[in-house]
């Protein structure tokens, strides 16, 4: 089954066979356009994989899309969230309120949501500003990055660990922990149908954002985790991929290997960039010299912040491999090739 990416206006709820439906839910104002929500039938009510962005239009699309598939949103049994990002977890709380459904996700992302609720947006805004200044960002970028952010999603009722089966009567839906895009990102292997719900981990055309926050932390290696997770998914074999964006495709393993190769090439290019610089550079300087889909000068401040996070994740991976080193100067973090 393959459904090439089309504008949201052309998307419709689709019967994928085997008791699985896809329901496109819009992401207002986002170039991705929509999230593909999957509904799995069960004798005790449908279980959703992700829920979509928290917006009235998205809620109507989810409710009406399920109705078109012969399902009542008030009878949803549970929502499995692949990761905490708002285009995946945003409506989970409203589904729970409407139906009494449980919400499940990996503990690492559940912990992040709890932290967001505990600290509040004002504290997170100050933390983002400090992170950007240490990276070498200018005042405009700091101001843009500290603008309003959506409210954190609902705290889950249940957590899932690697290898756990989801509460889906009559089916075998197994959790595959795939950290990288977020610390608690999960894929879901429908073992009785050789299908893999890939969330944002493996997409058919684009690659997910792999960043590190704060940029200068040293207690994690998200790109290293992501590359290991790609190998893990490739090891599951040639499964049909049901991703959260773009379109359904075959051969998850082949695409996972392609994405891994892409990042290894990016790491090589980054090492060359630092060697040619001849001096330590800030994360912001490095990001501005890297190759992106659009020229750095054309990127709005928010996208520059995301690019810097990706640069930082690649730098951290190279640091773990012993290929680059930190060269702090004042409050700023700088990187150079390891001599």
Quaternary structure annotation: single chain
Major sheet description: 7 strands, mixed
Which ranges are low-confidence, i.e. pLDDT below 50, for 5 or more consecutive residues? none
Continuous helix count = 10
Question: Span from first to last CA?
Answer: 51 Å
Inertia-based shape = globular
Q: What's the order of the H and E elements? A: EEEEHEHHEHHHEEEEHEHEHHEE
Content of β-strand: 15-25%
Tally of structural domains: 1
* Estimated radius of gyration: 20 Å
What is the correct CATH architecture? 4-Layer Sandwich
Task: Give a structural overview.
This protein is of the alpha/beta class and 339 residues long. The chain has a single domain (8-265), classed as Metallo-beta-lactamase, Chain A (4-Layer Sandwich). Helix content is 37%, strand content 18%. The protein has helices spanning 56-68, 86-89, 92-99, 107-119, 121-135, 139-145, 222-234, 252-277, 283-289, 301-320, and strands at residues 14-17, 20-26, 34-40, 47-49, 78-80, 102-106, 158-160, 173-177, 186-190, 195-199, 240-243, 281-282, 324-326, 334-337. It has a seven-stranded mixed β-sheet with strand order 1-2-3-4-5-6-7. InterPro entries: Metallo-B-lactamas, RibonucZ/Hydroxyglut_hydro, Sec-metab_biosynth-thioest, WH-like_DNA-bd_sf. Keywords: Hydrolase.
């Amino acid at each position: 089954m393959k459904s090439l990416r089309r504008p949201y206006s052309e998307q419709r709820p689709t019967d994928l066979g085997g008791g699985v439906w896809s329901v496109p839910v819009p992401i207002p104002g986002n170039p991705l356009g929509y999230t593909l929500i999957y509904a799995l039938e069960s004798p005790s009510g449908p279980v959703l994989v992700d829920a979509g962005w928290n917006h009235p239009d998205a809620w109507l699309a989810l409710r009406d899309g399920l109705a078109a598939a012969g399902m009542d949103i008030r009878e949803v049994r549970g929502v499995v969230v692949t990761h905490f990002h708002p285009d995946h977890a945003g409506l989970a709380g409203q589904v729970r309120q409407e139906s009494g459904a449980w919400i499940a996700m990996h503990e690492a992302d559940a912990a992040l949501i709890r932290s967001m609720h505990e600290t509040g947006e004002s504290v997170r805004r100050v933390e983002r500003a400090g992170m950007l200044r240490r990276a070498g960002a200018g005042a405009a970028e700091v101001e843009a990055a500290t603008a309003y952010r959506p409210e954190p999603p609902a705290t889950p009722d249940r957590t899932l660990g690697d290898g756990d089966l989801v509460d889906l009567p009559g089916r075998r839906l197994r959790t595959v922990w795939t950290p990288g895009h977020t610390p608690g990102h999960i894929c879901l292997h429908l073992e009785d149908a050789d299908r893999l719900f890939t969330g944002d981990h493996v997409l058919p055309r684009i690659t997910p954002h792999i960043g590190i926050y704060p940029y200068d932390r040293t207690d994690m290696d998200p790109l290293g985790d992501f590359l290991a997770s790609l190998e893990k998914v490739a090891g599951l074999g040639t499964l049909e991929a049901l991703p959260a964006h773009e379109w359904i495709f075959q051969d998850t393993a082949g695409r996972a290997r392609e994405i891994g190769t892409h990042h290894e090439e990016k790491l090589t290019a980054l090492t060359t960039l630092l060697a040619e610089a001849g001096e330590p550079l800030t994360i912001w300087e490095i990001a501005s010299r890297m190759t992106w889909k659009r020229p750095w000068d054309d990127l709005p401040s928010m996208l520059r912040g995301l690019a810097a996070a990706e640069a930082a994740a690649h730098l951290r991976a190279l640091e773990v491999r012993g290929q680059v080193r930190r060269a702090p100067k004042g409050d700023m973090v700088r990187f150079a090739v390891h001599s």
